[in-house]
Design brief:
The chain contains three helices and six strands; from the N terminus they run E-H-E-H-E-E-E-H-E. The chain is an alpha/beta fold.
Length: about 80
C-alpha cells in the first residue's frame, strides 16, 4: 500500500520500566523517547498496549492503540495525539 504509514511502536511496559528507573518523568514527549534510545528523530511514534501503567502519565505521540489509550486514561493520565 503506497499510503501506508510506518510507526515505531513503544509498549506501555517499556515506558513504565523507564519511569520506575527515574529516566522518564510524568509528562512524556517524543524527545524523551529519543533520549532513551527507543525511537529515532524521523520516526512516527505509536504507543502500544502491552503491559500496564502504575502511575498517571501524560503521553504525547503520533498514534495510540485502543488498549494503550484505555490503559493510560484508566491510570488517570492523558493520551495526546501529535500531528504527523
Amino acid at each position: 500500500n503506497p499510503n501506508r504509514v510506518e510507526y515505531t511502536g513503544v509498549n506501555l511496559d517499556t515506558i513504565q520500566a523507564l519511569v520506575d528507573a527515574k529516566k522518564l518523568k510524568r509528562t512524556i514527549v517524543k524527545q524523551d523517547l529519543m533520549n532513551n534510545g527507543l525511537v529515532q528523530k524521523n520516526d512516527l511514534v505509536k504507543i502500544l498496549g502491552r503491559g500496564e501503567l502504575k502511575e498517571k502519565l501524560d503521553i504525547t505521540a503520533h498514534a495510540f492503540s485502543a488498549s494503550a489509550k484505555t490503559a493510560i486514561e484508566k491510570a488517570g493520565g492523558s493520551a495526546t495525539i501529535l500531528e504527523k
